[in-house]
Fold:
Amino acid sequence: MPRSIHGGRHELGQNFLTHRPTLARITVLVARTSGRILELGCGDGVLTRELGALGRPLTAIDLDEHRVGRLRRALPDVRVEVADATRHPLDAEVVVGNIPFHVTTPILRRLLSHGRWNEAVLLTQWEVARKRAGVGGGTLMTAQSAPWFEFSLEGRVPAWGFSPRPSVDGGLLAITRRGSPLVPVSDRKRYDAFVRAMFTGRGGSLAAVVAAAARIPMGGGPACQYAFPETAGLDVRWRLPGRGSNAFPAICAPSSGPSSGIRSAAGDVSRPAIRARSQLAAPEATRRHTPSRRDGSPPPCVPAGPRVLHGRYSRRMSAFGTLETPVGVIGVESDGAAITRVTWRSTAPEGSVVSADPGADPLLAEALAQLRAYFDGALQRFDVPVDLGVQTTATRAVLLALQETVAHGETVTYGGLAARSGTAVPARGIGSIMGANPVPLIVPCHRVVAGDGLGGYSGGDTGRGLETKRWLLEHEGALPTSLF
Structure:
């Protein structure tokens, strides 16, 4: 192909997506939206073809005039233009793109400050996607944007899923414009100043950071006036949940003045709005996510937490299948887009369809095949999307930490997993999260043990939970012999 006047794909920073599960995942996310679609950096059109099949108005842009020409001829129903993603109007309802890694930040900044779009699905560097979604800690940009946008981490893409292969994994980030902002637009500058002060202020604790930034003495009471000029009229109110807990500040409207400042979805201005300096503005529940694993050393397209389907979407009819294993009959439920449940039961739950044709739901058939390979000792990582349902930010972070850091043949204590997750969830709370895990085995809660024994396990047939947990750990060669 002739060389573009802007340079080749290396100069343009293009790493074309070749990972089929990620292409399918992006298409599913976009299919759940409505309105016109704008694709940034369409390249050779691998994703463009999938988006075009949705039958909605689609504009695809790229800097490479030769690739644009080829794509115009191949996809006459798609509007393909030579344009720069950092300058093209963001006037479609949905923005999608495999963003060149070297321009991720300027494109994100432009998205969050311009345009009339409602939904964005972006493929960026893994660390950028993770931080923007507030998983394991937030960033200044995310915190300043959170009152107007919701961020969610929808997947991890292995480096080998691109061509040419980059040096880091990719991450799938979804952004939704809030219908009702949590901070009035008129207060945006003051809110930005407050967040910046929190990120850049000095002090060894959250209370010290705010005290220093606001120029107030420590120990001045549970409420203090936020004094610097940019935020005149706002209060910082402190909530101390209990001994050993972090302080939770909230920006509140002055009690005597009109309502302003941060509001929860219900409009309660007294609700804590910022969890901690390093975890600003991670919403309590975002979209549904779909964690997945793959048998191979690089992590696969790994959706990283729960995703909440908005009311305009309808849940698909579920399919159900079973598998005989050494630890009992395992039931698997699929909605066609993700695995929604793994249980020890041989009968389908209400609303599920049991098909005589194993291939009627390819995802269900694949999940059962991978589980069979796991019990045969031929598979260590699963590569199927899963849907965890609606979860809190803390639960999502804990399950992500489990999936990302505890491999086949390893174990972690409840307290150790709490530390890895970066949350304030105590060890007992970690146990509760493990007990409510909707997809055991795929998200390996059996690898979480107590400091002095196996701990508990809600999987397995009735009354055989610990026996099942012991078998699974022995099967993986992970049973710590020092405990028994």
